[in-house]
Amino acid sequence: MSLKNKVAIVGADETDDIGIVPNMTPIMMHAQAARNALRDAGIDKSEVDGVFTAGAGMMASTQLCEYLGIIPRYTDCTMTGGSSFVIHVEHAAAAIAAGLCNVALITHGETGFSGRNRRGPRGGGFAFDTTMPATQFEVPFGVGGAPSTYSMAAMRHMHEYGTTSEQLAEVAVATRKWAQLNPRAFMRDDLTIDDVLASRWVSYPFHIFDCCLVTDAGGAVVVVGADRARAMKKKPVWVLGSGEASTHQSLLGMDDVTRTPARYSGKAAFDMAGVTHADIDVVEVYDSFTYTAMVTLEELGFCAKGEGGPFVSKQRTAPGGAFPMNTNGGGLSYTHPGMYGMFILIEAVRQLRGECGARQVAGAKLALVNATGGMLSATGTLILGGD
Amino acid sequence: MAEYAKPIPYPSPETQPFWDACKRHELLLPYCPTCADFFFYPRQFCPRCFSWEIEWRRCSGKGTLYTFAIQMRPQTMGFTPPYVTAIVQLEEGPRLMTNLVGVEPMPENIRCDMPVEVVWEDVTDDVTLPMFKPAGV
Questions:
Q1: What residues in B contact A139, CB-CB < 8 Å?
Q2: Which residues of B touch A131 (CB under 8 A)?
Q3: Is A159 helix (H, G, I), strand (E, B) or coil?
Q4: What is residue A333's DSSP assignment?
Q5: Which of B76, B96, B113 sits opposite A142 (nearest CB)?
Q6: CA-to-CA distance for B74 and A287, rounded, in angstroms?
Q7: CA-to-CA distance for A359 and A328, rounded, in angstroms?
Q8: Quick count: other Cβ atoms within 10 Å of Cβ B28?
Q9: Could B97 and A135 be called an inter-chain contact, meaning their C-beta atoms sit closer than 8 Å?
Q10: Cβ proximity of A148 and A200 under 8 Å
C-alpha cells in the first residue's frame, strides 16, 4: 500500500515570536505552536488523537500529551535530531492510513539561544552518557557539537571533489537574499561572498556565515486523512511521496563521509510520488551549514555526486534564480533553534498555499522537503503537492 | 597529571582491551575472522556479519589523514583552540577519531591523505589517548 495522497497537512504555524524569546521554555513553545497550527487548520484540540513529537524530555510524547491535556490513541516520539518532525509526517501518514488515529499533531519547541543561560542541570545528550561510543572515542579528542563534525565531512568533500569555500559561500549569500524578503527572518543585513570569506573561522573549513543560527522557536503541523482534508477551510497540502533513512550515528560509522542518507530517503519519496526532479518547483532542505544544503542536493540527485559546488554557483538558489531553495531564509538566516526540520516543513506548506508574499515562488505546485538530523545521520524527505 | 581538564574515556567491558593496550602504547583493534577485516569502535560482535567470535589484533599505528578540521572554538570542555580534530585511516583499514598533533594548526600545514603515525599521550595515570602526527616528523 502506498501512502501517496492518503493524507494532507491542513495546519501549519510557528510560535508567535521566534528569534530571541527569553520568556518561554521549550514546552511552552510546543504548546503555543500547537495552538497556532490547530487554529490555522480550524480543528479543535479535542479532536487530536495522534501526537508526534521530539525534544520535550526523554518521554517526549507522554510529557507533551499530559501538558496539553490530550489522551491520544497513538503517539510517536521518534528522535532523529533535526529530521524528526519531517519523519513524523510519514509516521503520521502511516498511522492515519491504518486507521490508528484521525487527527495527527506534530510539535516542536526549543530555546537554543535563551536556554544557554537557563538555571539547572545541563547536558544529557548522547555525547555525555559515559557508556555511549562517542563519549569514549570522540569527546576526549575535542569532538562535540555539529560544527566539529560537519566540518570534517566538508573537508573531505573539498579534497575529493574540489569544492571551494567560495561555492559554499554562494549558499549563504543566496539564502540571505531570501531572508531579506521575509520580515520574520533573524538575519537580514546585506551579505556578499567576500563577507563570508572574510568572516571568522568557527571550525575550518567553516566560517561563521557557513553556520546556522542559534535561536529560540517552536512550530507545529496538523495532518489528517484525505476525506477530512478536502473539507478544510484552507487548501490542503498533499503528501505525495515520503521516505526516511538513517545510515549511522557518528562520522566513524560512514564508509564515505561525503554521502548522506538523503540518497535513500529521496529516492523513496520520488518513487512514491511518481514525479521527476524537473517537476519540483521549490526545494526546502536543511542548512545546518552551507555544506549540508549543498551535499543534500547531490544526494537527492538534483546534480551529480561531487557537483554540488558548481550547481549552487552564480546564485542559482537565490530569489530569481533557476532553483529556488530555502525560501524562508533557512537555518542560516531565518531561524535555527536546534532541530530545524519543522521550519522547513512549514515553509513548504506556506509556499504551496501561496502565503509567502514577497518571497512567494510563483505558481509553486510541488515542493521537496528534506531534513537532516544528527551528524548527517538521518534524513526524511517529503514531496508535497498543492491543491 | 591529576589536573587534566579535558574529558577522558570511561572504558566499558567491550572496550577495555583497547584502552588497556593504549596504556601499553599498543594499538589493539577488534578483528572479525569471518569477514577477515577489522572494525571500530569495539563491540563484542562484528557489526557486518554479526559474528560474536571476534579477535583483537595489533595495528601498526601508521595510516593516512582521511579528513580533519581546525577547531577555532572549544567543542568540549578543557580544549583551547585552535586544535585539529581528525579521522585517521589506519593502513589496516579501520578509522579512528583523534587529534592531529606535532604540527601548527594552520590550513597550509595539513592536507587530507597525508601520512600520519600514532603518538601516545599519557594524559592521566589511568588513561592514554592515541593521537597522530605527520609521519616522520
A1: 7, 9, 76
A2: 10, 12
A3: helix
A4: I
A5: B76
A6: 22
A7: 8
A8: 17
A9: no
A10: no
Count of alpha carbons within 13 Å of A207, Cβ hemisphere only?
A: 19
Select from B39, B61, B46 the least CA-distant residue to B128.
Answer: B61
8-state DSSP, B11? -
d(CA B115, CA B113): 6
Query: What average pLDDT does the structure give for chain A?
Result: 96
A50/A61 Cα distance (integer angstroms)? 10
- Record: contact B69-A205, CB cut-off 8 A: yes
C-alpha cell at A113: 539561544
Question: Residue A131's pLDDT is what?
Answer: 87
Residues of chain B with pLDDT under 70: 1-2
The model's pLDDT over A123-139, given as tens digits with 9 standing for 90+, comes to: 434 446 888 898 999 99
Instruction: Please give the Cα distance from A50 to A34 (Å, whole number).
Output: 13
pLDDT of A308 > 50? The answer is: yes
* ipTM of this complex: 0.97
Q: How far apart (Å, rounded) are the C-alpha atoms in residues B49 and B35? A: 7
Task: Provide the pLDDT for residue A119.
Answer: 63
Q: Chain A: which residues have CB within 8 Å of chain B?
A: 127, 130-131, 133, 135-145, 147-148, 151-156, 159-160, 200-206, 250-252, 257
User: In whole angstroms, how far apart are CA A207 and each of A146, A172, A289, B83?
Assistant: 14, 10, 10, 16
Band of residue A93 on the pLDDT scale cut at 50, 70, 90: very high
Identity of the residue in B12, B72, B97 whose CB atom sits nearest the CB atom of A252? B97
Q: Which residues contact A160 (CB under 8 A, 6 or more apart)?
A: A258, A306, B112
What is the predicted pLDDT for the residue at B27? 98
Distance CA A110, CA A283 (A): 24
pTM of the full predicted structure? 0.96
**pLDDT band with cut points at 50, 70 and 90 for residue A70:** very high
Test the B interface: residue of A155, A159, A163, A209 with most B CBs within 10 Å: A155
Look at residue A221 and tell me whether its pLDDT is greater than 60: yes
- How many angstroms separate the CA of residue B44 from the nearest CA in chain A? 13
